[in-house]
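Exercise 7b. Backbone tokens:
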């Protein structure tokens, strides 16, 4: 069931079926009409902590690499909101359309990416899909060969933050093309 805290302005907008249970979706003022929680308003300290974690993760990393990692994780998590946001950020930072188009298939288009970027993309995939096969030793070793310990710690933190942001965006039904960063 979708819950809102403002029951005075709630209205039923449809039904969602999960297993054998059917529940009405609720729309509330302040949630963009999606009926989903506004995470930043509902848990402001948690939201600010995540923003701070994200900012700390980026420190010292090449901005182009940051966007590539965020784009690849967003592909894997099927997060259109974050994918749209980070491809636009990458363009604004000067990233080429060719490279942006190749991120999803980087293994087949390695010549578009440096060995360091390839190592980061492989690590992003492994960490994002950690439940499937863990993080293989060879993937970790390749990343460790391209990043010093501090950089590797930041890359790992960035992968963790984008995976968290993807889940927040998906859970709260963010719509691609509506960049709501504050």
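Sequence design result:
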């Amino acid at each position: 069931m979708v819950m809102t805290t403002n029951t005075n302005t709630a209205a039923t907008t449809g039904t969602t079926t999960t297993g054998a249970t059917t529940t009405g979706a609720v729309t509330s003022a302040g949630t963009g009409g999606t009926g989903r929680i506004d995470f930043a308003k509902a848990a402001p300290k948690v939201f600010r902590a995540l923003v701070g974690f994200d900012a700390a993760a980026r420190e010292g990393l090449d901005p182009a690499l940051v966007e590539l990692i965020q784009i690849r994780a967003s592909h894997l998590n099927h997060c259109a909101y974050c994918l749209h946001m980070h491809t636009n950020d990458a363009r604004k930072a000067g990233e080429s359309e060719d490279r942006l188009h190749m991120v999803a298939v980087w293994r087949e288009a390695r010549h578009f990416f440096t060995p360091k970027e390839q190592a980061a993309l492989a690590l992003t995939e492994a960490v994002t899909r950690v439940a499937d096969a863990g993080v293989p030793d060879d993937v970790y070793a390749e990343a460790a060969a391209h990043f010093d310990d501090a950089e590797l710690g930041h890359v790992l933190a960035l992968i963790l933050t984008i995976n968290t942001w993807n889940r927040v965006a998906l859970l709260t039904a963010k719509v691609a093309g509506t960049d709501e960063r504050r």
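Instructor comment: The two ends are 28 Å apart (CA to CA). The chain has nine helices and two strands.
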